[in-house]
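Hi all, long-time lurker, first post. I run a small reading group and we've been trying to get comfortable going from sequence to structure in the token notation. Rather than ask abstract questions, I figured I'd post a concrete chain and ask someone more experienced to write out its structure so we can walk through it together at our next meeting. Sequence below, copied exactly:
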Amino acid sequence: MRSMPPTFAFMVSSLGVVCSSTHWSAPGVRRSVTAVTRLMQAIRVPAGQRGRAPSATVAAPRTRPSRNPTMDRPPPTRELQPSALTANEMYLLLRDSVMPRPIAWVSTIDHQGRSNLAPYSFFSVCSSDPPILGFSAMKSGRDERGQPTYKDTMVNVRANGEMVINVVPESMMLPMVETSANLAPGESEFDFAKLPQAASTAVKPPRVAGAPVAYECVVHSIVELGASAWVMARVVHVHVDERVYVGTVKGVNHRIDLLQGTEMRPAGRLGRALYSRIRNEETILRRDGPND
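-- Answer (accepted) --
Happy to help. Here is the structure in token form:
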């Protein structure tokens, strides 16, 4: 029996043609490379088209396995109705799932010009044009009757409509937490946490000296939401630390980079006493671009 090269290893069971890496046989078929080639052509081309170039055919689409195995069989879930949860249970559910959260370090002044500073982690960008930042303030204080009420930040914002929203760097994480202490009305968190302050340009409240970015703001609107209020603040002036200021990049002016070092990276909040630092960031390019 003739030996064939390994490249002709295949099996065509319907025709009784069996080939291996060393031997091949086909009853009634001449043992030659030419016969095998013709047999394979006969399998691929319908009888009416033999002898001429085969027409192009479209292969049936293959079913691709799911990239996410849970899509085919979702994991079991616990079903919850917000109306069945207490206010504190709902707060904790939101706090422990929407994370990490950036922190708005809000400085204000009262009617006597005394400064106040407090962190808020229910915070985000509402709009870039016009530039509006937003944060949620809860009624975490108590009035003389023991009823829930807003603390100094909201009292000051309502009174004069001005504030500075400072970005919290990692290097100031500890004093930031200290500014959440329950101090007497009028007592300055700047002094309590031994934080340096700097004069603002367009508003009266001071900013945190050393913050990578400080946004001077005026009140755009305040939305009452039951036990809390959503404050939307329009940015009227911005202070950027020279250490994070980059400048013009690809024709766009005033770019900044808070990730180039570690001490200027923004701190985040996860839970009551749990905070986060930015580490091991990953670049994943978008197909629609741009990617910078």
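A couple of things your group might point at:
The mean pLDDT is 84.
The two ends are 66 Å apart (CA to CA).
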